[in-house]
Structure formats: C-alpha cells, structure tokens
Specification:
Layout: E1 2-7, H1 13-24, E2 29-36, H2 42-50, E3 54-56, H3 65-79, E4 83-86, H4 95-100, E5 105-109, H5 124-132, E6 137-138, E7 141-144, E8 154-157, E9 160-161, H6 168-193
Parallel strand pairs: 1-2, 1-4, 2-3, 4-5
Antiparallel strand pairs: 5-7, 6-9, 7-8
The structure holds 5-O-phosphono-beta-D-ribofuranosylamine.
Length: about 200
C-alpha cells in the first residue's frame, strides 16, 4: 500500500473525495498527513474526521523562511510518502519540496491546461476567464508539479461543456464534480505506472 500526503488550503472537497475512495477500498493507499496554510479550513475538519494528522505550516506559524521550509521537510521525512497530493493548496511550494519529491507531486487545476493556467488563474478567476473567452468546453486537469506554475506534465483531463447561461459558479460546480471523479483515479493510475503498491 503506497503512502500519500495531502496539502490543502480551502474547503477540501477534493481531499475528502480522495480519502473517501481510500476508505471505500477503491484507492489502495494510506493518507499520512494533511499540511495546510489555513488552520481553520474545511480540509482540516475532514482530516480530523478521518484521524489524519494535521500540520499547520504558514507564514504566520513560521515567519522565518528557513524554519518554514524545514517544517515542511520535517513532515515529508517523518512519513516518507510516495506521492504528495495538492488539493486546492493556494500557495506556491518551496523549491526544496520539489527537489525532495521530483515527479512525485500532483496538482489538480479547474481548467483544461495549458489554457487558463499560471499566475492569477485560481478559483473563480479561472472560470470567469473561460466564460470571457467564449470557450465551449472546460474541465479539470491533473498534472505533475514543476517549477513553472501549472506547466508540469499533464496526467489526465476531463472535458465538460460550457453552457450558454453559465455563470462562474455554475461552471465551477460542473467542473468540481469531475475533479472528484478524476483525481483519485489519476493518483491510482500514476502510482501503478511508477510501480507503487
Ligand atoms: C479546486 O477547484 C481545484 O481544482 C483547485 O482548487 C479547488 C479546491 O477545491 N486547485 P476544494 O478545496 O477541493 O473543494
């Protein structure tokens, strides 16, 4: 059984979808920790429900950059995870994390990358831009995390239609349903491709 750690900042619905699949036995992995930069977020609540250790590491808890990075690496070292899963983690990862886990960090983004990715494309901004560009389809992308934001190797995408009367909220909701279906399956397939058990 391979080991994952998750990082999240927000509601944590993707995190919950993954740990639910683990709980159901569909994803044969163990989730060893949640790292968050937002101690009061929904993801923390889901972690507590599942008894998953939570580490609150942010600029507030660790104002010194070196201490901040050391705290992150300490968690990685403690659990020696195979994959690190970003599930709505809203901060750029320090380079030391990318170096510690090359090709082992996954992220989910709510557009069909490479479209509508990179700096400034997060949350509702993504869906607003998709609508402003009159796209006819959108959908989530799971990709490897590299130094350039939202530019790592694409592992999987799901397309959904953009409807004429969509608002950013209705489009976001349609994409989010597909995020929940896509992320755990992609983690499973990627782990298999690496020979993780
Ligand atoms: C999702 O839309 C994901 O694509 C993006 O952040 C959002 C997180 O949502 N990276 P949730 O916290 O998992 O509900």
């Amino acid at each position: 059984m391979f080991k994952i750690g998750v990082m999240a900042s927000g509601g944590g619905s993707n995190f919950k979808a993954i740990i639910d699949r683990i709980g159901e036995g569909d994803l044969e992995a163990q989730c060893k920790f949640l790292i968050t930069n937002n101690g009061g977020c929904g993801a923390v609540h889901h972690a507590e429900e599942y008894g998953i250790p939570v580490y609150h590491i942010s600029g507030k808890t660790h104002p010194d950059q070196a201490a901040y990075e050391a705290a992150m690496l300490e968690v990685l070292d403690k659990y020696d995870v195979d994959l690190l899963i970003l599930a709505g983690y809203m901060k750029a990862l320090p380079l030391c994390m990318l170096k510690r886990l090359p090709n082992r960090i996954l992220n989910i983004h709510p557009s069909l990358l490479p479209k509508f990715g990179g700096k400034g494309f997060w949350g509702h901004h993504v869906h607003e831009a998709v609508l402003a560009a009159h796209e006819t389809e959108s959908g989530p992308t799971v990709h490897l995390v590299s130094e350039e934001i939202d530019r790592g190797r694409i592992l999987a995408q799901t397309k959904v239609p953009v409807l004429p009367d969509d608002t950013p909220d209705t489009l976001a909701a349609r994409v989010l349903v597909q995020e929940h279906a896509l992320y755990w399956k992609t983690i499973k397939e990627y782990a298999e491709s690496l020979g993780l058990h």
